[in-house]
Design a protein that fits this description.
There is one protein chain. By secondary structure, the chain is α/β, with parallel strands linked by helices. It folds into five domains: 73 residues; 85 residues, Orthogonal Bundle (Arc Repressor Mutant, subunit A), CATH 1.10.10; 95 residues, no CATH class; 94 residues; 66 residues, no CATH class. The chain has 22 helices and seven strands. The chain has a four-stranded parallel beta sheet, with no helix packed on it.
Length: 464
């Protein structure tokens, strides 16, 4: 049985969300139901050693969700995917510049013939780093400068750190478990301090970015490092668009942290990462094509028109849109939320919004949608005061109605009043919008009145 990382991802999703149907899994993972069925067949037959033909798909899902030790069983059988073979090969090629075909064939079952099938994918990646692949009967050579080889190595490290929970054991053993660090605890603490200094999001992706950079560009005894730059000479490294106080704050931190060991020739790359996290330059907005404006408009449909404010949207969204571009180039398989309980996701606004965005940016998934949704919710303008007015509704169900209005329309209600009380309230208080779900006449024309539909729950019918 051919078991790969996709089987493990689907397994985790089922284990943590045992009520999900085949349709739910298909929509969340953006795979056809037929493809999901094939993966479920593989998982069931691998763990039970039985044929699946006699079971309905709902029974298969139930069996898989309740079976114990499933992950351990699948891990033992897990093999490299075709893409994993290519990126494993590229990673070690970026270190040694040359690999013999005998080694490739033994480790990865890659030959001149099947490597040619991946030539287009490989060349698209290498072209971005001014590198070239040369294949001969003796082996494979990677042609380019040491600097560009290190940059490729850095992005591949980042990819593997993101995917680490679903990589085959040999992959993790050869790439990740061989990492040698004197004080990993201090480095991890310094990464957290660095992101805090930048007022950044502390996402696993940003942590992986900094860790991959450190592992790739740290120096040794012979190299000149940040630690050796004096404060008198540091200004020549300052980006022109950075404020002086901000630069000194960053530089002082670097000299007194694990990052003091970074080679000075690569310090500007670290500053580029800072810019990527903060998007302090207009250049970064322009470098992400006009698709981002479409994403902004879609988010505003679900979260409100305040999202159209560039100061709210771009700093939050640009790093994620940029990340989607990196995912597309390096075929990054990111399932960072697959271990969570995703209750209500199949019927959520987030899923519907993600489907719209995916038409513009195919690599934008439900996981980016969830992350960005919650980040932008924090940016909501709470100074807008919305009150809910009712007349013929039982008062004890008002909180539930208000909650449904927020979920369906992203309108946050400040207070709720019976229609008889609203005029007195308006005399002494500021109100921006009046929300109602009944035909109530409001005579103050200076205030916007939004008459919404009653939010009737859509209950599922239980089969007897």
């Amino acid at each position: 049985m051919y078991i790969n990382s996709k089987h493990l991802q689907i397994l985790h999703l089922i284990k943590n969300n045992p009520t999900f149907t085949l349709k739910d899994i298909s929509e969340i993972l953006d795979l056809s139901q037929q493809h999901i069925k094939l993966y479920l067949n593989d998982i069931y037959e691998e763990i039970s050693e039985k044929n699946i033909s006699t079971l309905k798909i709902d029974e298969v899902l139930k069996e898989i969700s309740s079976f114990k030790g499933t992950k351990k069983i699948l891990r033992k059988s897990q093999q490299f995917t075709k893409n994993q073979k290519v990126f494993y090969f590229l990673f070690f090629l970026s270190i040694s510049k040359k690999i013999n075909f005998s080694t490739i064939s033994k480790e990865l079952d890659l030959t001149t013939r099947n490597l040619n099938n991946y030539k287009e994918i490989i060349n698209n990646i290498l072209r971005a780093y001014n590198l070239k692949l040369f294949i001969s009967s003796k082996g494979v050579h990677l042609l380019g400068t040491n600097f560009n080889l290190r940059r490729l190595h850095y992005f591949l490290f980042f990819k593997f750190l993101i995917e680490k929970d679903y990589l085959p054991y040999k992959f993790r053993k050869d790439v990740l478990l061989k990492i040698e660090l004197k004080n990993f605890y201090k480095l991890r603490k310094d990464i957290y301090r660095f992101l805090t200094l930048l007022h950044s999001q502390h996402s696993p992706h940003q942590q992986a970015t900094i860790l991959a950079f450190f592992l790739t560009f740290k120096g040794n005894v012979k190299d000149k490092t940040i630690n050796q730059i004096s404060f008198e000479n540091c200004l020549k490294y300052k980006p022109n668009h950075w404020k002086l106080d901000f630069f000194y704050e960053i530089f002082c931190f670097l000299k007194n942290s694990s990052f003091k060991d970074i080679k000075t020739v690569y310090i500007y790359l670290l500053f580029n990462i800072v810019d990527t996290f903060n998007y302090s330059r207009v250049y970064f907005i322009n470098s992400l094509d006009k698709d981002i404006l479409n994403v902004q408009n879609i988010f505003s449909e679900y979260l409100g028109t305040h999202i159209l404010d560039e100061s709210i949207f771009f700093p939050a969204a640009n790093p994620w849109i940029y990340y989607c571009k990196i995912k597309q180039l390096f075929f990054i398989d990111d399932f960072s939320l697959v271990n969570l309980n995703l209750e209500h996701i199949p019927n959520s606004n987030v899923l519907n919004m993600t489907k719209k965005i995916r038409k513009t940016i195919p690599s934008f998934t439900i996981f980016e949608g969830i992350f960005l949704w919650f980040i932008l919710l924090k940016k909501e303008k709470y100074e807008e005061i919305n009150v809910f007015v009712f007349k013929s509704i039982e008062k004890n169900i008002i909180p539930m109605i208000v909650n449904e209005i927020y979920k369906k329309h992203s309108i946050k209600i400040t207070k709720s009043f019976n229609s008889k009380e609203i005029n007195q309230y308006l005399k002494n208080n500021k109100v921006d919008n009046i929300i109602t779900i009944e035909n109530i006449k409001i005579y103050n024309t200076n205030i916007t009145v939004k008459n919404l539909y009653f939010p009737v729950p859509n209950y599922k019918k239980f089969e007897k």
